[in-house]
Amino acid sequence: MSRLYIPPTCPPTPPTGYLDQWIPLTPIEEMEKTDYDVLIIGTGAGGSAVLWRLCEQLVASGKRIGIIEAGDLLLPMHAQNLPTINVERYVQLFTNPKISIPIGKGIPDFPAATLLYALGGRTLFWSGVSPRMHPSVLSKWPLSLKEMNYYYNIAEEVMNVSRDYTKGSSITEVLVNRLRRGGFIEAAGFPLAVDLAQTKYGRIHSNVFFSAMDLFAYSLNRRSFDLAVNARAVKVLHENGKAVGVEVMNPDKKSFFLKSRNVVFSAGALDTPQILLHSGIQGRAIGHYLTNHSFLMAHGVLDRADFSELLGTLGILIPQTNEQPFQIQLYGPGVDFWYSYEEPPLRKELEVRFEGFGIVESRFENQVYLNPNIRDEYGVPKIQIDFSYSEKDKEIIDRVAQGIKQVSEVIKAPLITRNGQYDLCLMPAGQDNHVSGTCRMSLDSYDGATNPYGEVFGVTGLFVADNSMLPPMGASNPTLSTIALAIRTADYIMTKL
Ligand SMILES: Cc1cc2nc3c(=O)[nH]c(=O)nc-3n(C[C@H](O)[C@H](O)[C@H](O)COP(=O)(O)OP(=O)(O)OC[C@H]3O[C@@H](n4cnc5c(N)ncnc54)[C@H](O)[C@@H]3O)c2cc1C
User: Are residues 275 and 305 in the same domain?
Assistant: First the structure.
């Protein structure tokens, strides 16, 4: 008889703890027990970039880093990466009043202002167009072009910015050629924040469109940090000109006091000045110099026969130049700029969407301020906004409109007309989602809220790293610059730790 060998039963695997969600969270009660070296408020573009840089650079240090978010967990990645989302469901999710608060309804000067509260902020839904600012704009910023380019390089790398998304698309290539021949010599495919690498050798690349969640993912795999959601900062705590922490409330309106010797506000260009003003932070420029882009939209139609069988996708940026104080973006065909599981129908005519962004002057009188008579559910005064376009802004709006008409002629996509009028309109203020400048950096506290590293004048250890710190931004989309500057602010904080 042969002898059978039955090996011993494998020992049970010891439990390693459980994860309730797709990202580790720390209860706010626990965070209250820690003395942080850096505490970040807000998890959108600016906040996640500060977190990433600190985690990258402080891998082996014992420094304690915390980050809090007013909203809840919503999506583990950019909405466009989710297989169940299409254009229609994307809009329905983005505009859900549970996360998107249309505060502009109570603000006549800025009627399209919307706040979005969720882990990842507006980067969960942004379009990813990521140009650098024009050199004439950067030359007025309080840092050298060389240094800005250094941080642009880092930001573009971590965000995967490239022009590859539309490369090889006949519709983009034909129209870029028409534009260049027609005088728009700088027209090119979008610089887009997309990861187009192939999934290979076990390394997954399913996270195509960039969002703050990519920076959270990198950070998590570098070192530990504490993250709390549903934790709304209501006040900065400061003593003798130094930041010492933040008062935070949970949805039950219970207060918690988080201690930190460096506090970074990345709550967005409307919430950040709100909390600084409510905290009694003094500064002539806080809340002022609110800047956005005048935003014009139009639609035109191309002849399908002008393009080859393999049409591809249309994404063209006509950037600001010395002569042209605006930027135009072309999207198409129709709504098929991105799609995953649906089959785009064969179309006889191809619709192009024109989006024009005009420079808006940075003026003191355009401001966000507290309305002492109306408080939100957390007891913080609600914001009001004074905003108007200057005569110069209006001239530029006229030039954007002319520019769109000219582009439509050059690319042979006549603008659609409705009731005999061109379908070309100026979107209500705030619709561009590019609001910025409300805590802008400057060499001088007279016309800036922070120094060139984002540290608030007069309060050591209190920083701003989001769209509100941007100086005048010209006509380019802001987020790449915000992320580049947030990385720089993190570097500066590290020199002090
Ligand atoms: C549909 C859409 C398309 C866009 N397309 C582009 C584009 O193509 N290119 C481009 O450059 N930009 C684009 N943008 C704009 C871009 O999303 C913003 O510029 C960028 O997200 C701003 O970063 P931020 O850090 O200032 O704010 P946000 O990303 O909005 O992050 C702010 C975070 O702070 C949190 N928060 C607010 N108040 C508090 C508080 N009191 N306590 C704690 N947390 C708080 C919020 O919940 C949020 O998570 C687009 C935006 C939208 C909505």
Answer: no
- Under 8 Å CB-to-CB from 240, ≥6 apart: which residues? none
Q: Name the closest-CA residue to atom 48, ligand 1.
A: 121
Exposed, middle or buried by CB within 10 Å (0-12, 13-18, 19+), for 34?
A: middle
How many whole angstroms from 307 Cα to the centroid of ligand 1? Answer: 37
Task: Let me know whether 147 and 242 are in one domain.
Answer: yes
Specify whether 230 is located in the same domain as 343.
Answer: no
Q: What is the position in ligand 1's atom list of the atom closest to the CA of 275?
A: 41
**Atom 31 (ligand 1): residue with closest C-alpha?**
44
Question: How close is the Cα of 116 to the center of ligand 1, in Å?
Answer: 7
Supply the range of the domain harboring residue 260.
23-160+210-291+363-387+435-497
| Coil, strand or helix at 172 | helix
Instruction: Give the Cα separation of 271 and 277 in Å (integer).
Output: 10
114 lines ligand 1 (CB under 6 A): no
Q: List per-block mean pLDDT (blocks of 10 residues) for the chain, which spans 497 residues.
A: 88 88 97 98 98 95 96 98 96 96 95 97 98 97 98 98 96 97 98 97 95 98 97 97 98 98 98 98 97 97 91 97 97 94 89 98 98 95 98 98 98 89 91 97 97 98 98 97 98 95
Radius of gyration for the alpha carbons in the chain, expressed in angstroms and rounded = 24
Pairing of strands 242-249, 115-116: unpaired
Nearest CA-CA partner of 432 in 389, 383, 489: 389
